[in-house]
Amino acid sequence: MENPLLLFPQLNISASKDKAYYKVMKSAIKEEPHKASKPGAKQKRNRLSLLLQKPEFHEGDHLGKPGNLTIAASVSPEEAVKWGESFDKLLSEKAGLDAFTKFLKTEFSEENIEFWIACEDYKKSKSAHELLSKAKTIFETFIQKDAPKEVNLDFHTKEVTSQSVGQPVHSTFDAAQTTVYRLMEQDSYPRFLRSAPYRDLVRDRGPTHAPLRRRSRSFTISDFQGVKPDLTMW
Q1: DSSP secondary structure string, 160-180?
Q2: For the segment 169-206, what is each residue's pLDDT rounded down to a tens digit?
Q3: Ranges for the RGS domain (predicted)?
């Protein structure tokens, strides 16, 4: 019996095409799970953010590496020591604010300090138009759902702030700013003080006062004049 593919050449062509098609599909099926297993950029960032938020992760020396937290060389150890006195003291000095902002970037939580700075600027607005413009920008950037730099606020604070944005006043963001401030003060600020660059800077501080030297005293015969010997010891 003759081979049907020889009698009907078109079957041979069709079979070749089908074979090539299934070969491509088989390869694609093998590759698809591999692609699906690769986490997206956002997923990678979320995992890394969770890792960096672990307290033990910040005890190492990684913060001192290039590209991470560095403190300006112009900052003296004495100045840095004052940052540890209070969170207010840290934020009130430009160098301290800059260093803390860089630290929050290593934790992927810089939106907190950026929101706080935006609120400080907002309170300096001099007209109703300026208040409205800045309030809208702050709300859309930091507060509304799925905002690009959404800060962590409780439901009540978010609702009160949202209702006030339509007719903003200088105190519109006070409650939200206080919430974020306390979050940084209680959570991020202690870790900043434990970070390697900050500890190293403070450790370089020299003694504030020269150690006191005790002067040795030379006794003279006059020191013993009029002193009666204690004969009970003999």
Answers
A1: HHHHHHTS--TTTTHHHHHHH
A2: 999 999 999 999 999 999 999 999 999 989 988 887 54
A3: 86-202
**pTM of this prediction?**
0.59
Q: Looking at the chain, how many residues does it have?
A: 234
Task: Give the range of the structural domain holding residue 159, as residue numbers without chain letter.
Answer: 77-201
Single-letter residue type at 97: L
Find tokens 């070749």 and name the residue: 16
Specify whether the CB–CB gap between 113 and 184 falls below 8 A.
yes
Q: What pLDDT, on a 0 to 100 scale, did the predictor assign at position 137?
A: 97
- Residue 88 pLDDT greater than 80, yes or no: yes
Structure tokens at 175: 């409650």
Q: What is the CATH number of the domain that holds 174?
A: 1.10.167.10
Q: Can you tell me the mean pLDDT for 82-108? A: 95
Nearest to 72 by CA among 98, 43, 107: 98
For residue 61, tell me if it sits in a domain. Answer: no
Residue 16, CA distances (Å) to 7, 11, 38 in order: 16, 8, 34
Amino acid at residue number 168: P
